Amino acid sequence: MRRATLRCALTLAGVLACTTAFAQSGSGTAAPASDDAAAEKPGLRALLHDPKDGKFDMSRWLLERKGGFLPVPIIVSDPAVGYGGGLAALFFHRPAGATTTRTTSDGRQQLVPPNLFGGMAMKTENGTHAYGGGAMLHFKDDRWRYTGGVAKASVNLDFYTPGRFTEPLAIGYNADGVVSFQKIARRLGEENLYLGLSWTYMDLDLSFDVAGDAQRFTPKERAQTTSGLGLSLQYDTRDNSFTPNSGWLGQIEGNFYDDAFGSDTTFQSYRSHAFAYLPMGGERFVLGGRIDMRWANGDIPFYRLPFIDLRGVGSARYADTRAATLETELRWNTTPRWALIGFLGAGRTWGRHNDFGEAPSQVAKGAGVRYKIASVLGLYTGVDYAWGPEDETLYVQVGSAWR
């Protein structure tokens, strides 16, 4: 699902990303006590505090309480859509009799996460608004996974011309419609290697702030319905998928849009990315690195072009048929609960009007603060402030900023 298109997405993607991250986490994590093992039902204070240090912690609330609920406030400050806000919610549910752990090939006990359901609604000052819901379900002791979501959105964005010889021109447009993402994945063997099959569907009504701007695009570039099937392969050795301290994740994926699948245009989009984490000084410091390559071929709608995805850079501000991003982040765990982070990244797009060597790089940097809100899950939450080529932006983070 392309975040820029649609900040329907703005947070539905966040909700699904959180559920996906939780489902992939748990390596080496002890399972929560079952209801049968509990001597007595804990009170609200006990559910919201860690018995080890007495600090505010939502681990027991999310994992031990039936129907655990995690509210996530939405604060939007993306330069592409302006300031705004809303609310997302995650609901945790473990079916009766479902297993809580599985044994990996090397004998480790790994947490099998509960099913998760999410919903969100948001609105920004430029008139963008969206609402939607999603879920992640687990079957056969977590051998099969389903991830899916549907959102209704009306998004006001600008598409920027390359500006190779003149200043870039901002073409204002509105995309109003439905976005759906459905994926099923199967574990291969007993390790964290997953083969996935997905379906991405967008049915949008496009309109331009200046009616004549529609003529700048071909009919295929203005295609309103895109529907495609995708294949993905992911390998994950991270110790924790919410806020990792060590290990790496690698994934390659391809999506194929064709009229046979109900698409108005034929094109292909690909992504290859890797995240790596190196602990230093015990886990006092964690150095992370990210590389992200995206490309597309065929009759690509202008709103589906690959783009630079960096904190501090507006969604879809820099888009072309090829996009590459490098980013590094250092987390300093100042206490067992609190952490400070700093990050620096650069991205580049090219393809339609220039080659890689001619394309300028866009650089963004920033800093943030984190609090470990669920120690059993290794989940941190906090805020980032980023400086980009044109704007300064505030982000609320739940888990890692890298998706």
Task: Provide a concise account of the structure shown.
Residues 1-23 form the signal peptide. This protein has 403 residues and is mainly beta.
CA(first)-CA(last) distance? 11 Å
Integer count of domains = 1
Radius of gyration: 21 Å
CATH topology: the name is Porin
Number of strands: 18
The CATH fourth-level homologous superfamily: membrane protein fhac: a member of the omp85/tpsb transporter family
Low-confidence stretches: 1-39
Provide the residue-averaged pLDDT. Answer: 85
Figure out the total of helices: 3
Question: What percent of residues adopt helix (DSSP H or I)?
Answer: under 10%
Please indicate the percent range of residues in DSSP E strands (runs of 2 or more).
Answer: over 45%
- Secondary-structure-derived class: mainly beta
Organism: Lysobacter soli
InterPro entries: Bac_surfAg_D15 (IPR000184)
Pfam families: Omp85
Keywords: Membrane, Signal
